[in-house]
Amino acid sequence: MIAASLAVGWSTCAAWVAWIVGGLACDESCGGPAAAWTDSADAWQWTAIVALGVALLVLSIVLWWAAKSGRPAVAWPAAITWIACGVALVLLMSVAHDNGPTLRNLLLLGIACVVTAATFTAPEREAT
Predict the structure, then answer these.
(1) Among 44, 51, 47, 57, CA closest to 7
(2) Nearest C-alpha neighbor of 119 from the set 63, 69, 73, 49
(3) pLDDT value for 18
(4) What separation in angstroms does the CA of 50 have from each of 19, 55, 106, 118?
(5) Which of 102, 104, 112, 100 minimizes the C-alpha distance to 15?
(6) Is residue 92 within 8 Å of residue 56, measured between CB atoms?
(7) What per-residue confidence (pLDDT) applies to 29?
(8) CB within 8 A of 61, min separation 6: which ones?
(9) Could you give the CA distance from residue 33 to residue 26 in angstroms, rounded to a whole number?
(10) What's the DSSP call for residue 27?
(11) 3 and 119 in contact (C-beta within 8 Å)?
(12) pLDDT digit of tens for each residue in the chain (128 aa)?
């Protein structure tokens, strides 16, 4: 339960940051013909950042529930999707800040993946 709770906490923070980054998109620096998506307020990537943040939060709650109720059949697909969303979010946000996938972001994602893997170790329980 501790590992699943940490995944929820990490996802909550990631969703909050994604909401801010996606909401602020590009302010007065945008305008005219954009050479890159980071220079266009209408780029789909800004919406994708927010959507991935929300997806991470929802999937982490599903993981927490699956760990609590001992349902690995639910945890596996949710965790794989959670990891994919996390990778996509880290990559998009890294590009949005013009620094590429930094070691810090990848380290945070790695920690989150380890927490997710720990969630799978919850024993399956009998339905009550």
Answers:
(1) 57
(2) 63
(3) 84
(4) 5, 9, 19, 26
(5) 112
(6) no
(7) 63
(8) 8
(9) 14
(10) -
(11) yes
(12) 677 777 788 788 888 888 888 777 666 666 656 667 777 777 888 889 899 999 999 998 998 888 888 887 888 888 888 888 888 888 888 777 665 556 566 667 766 766 666 666 555 566 55
State the pTM of this model.
0.75
- Counting every residue written for the chain, the total comes to 128
Angstrom CA distances, 56 to 30, 50, 124, stand at: 28, 10, 24
Helices within 1-128 (DSSP H only):
2-24, 44-69, 72-96, 103-119
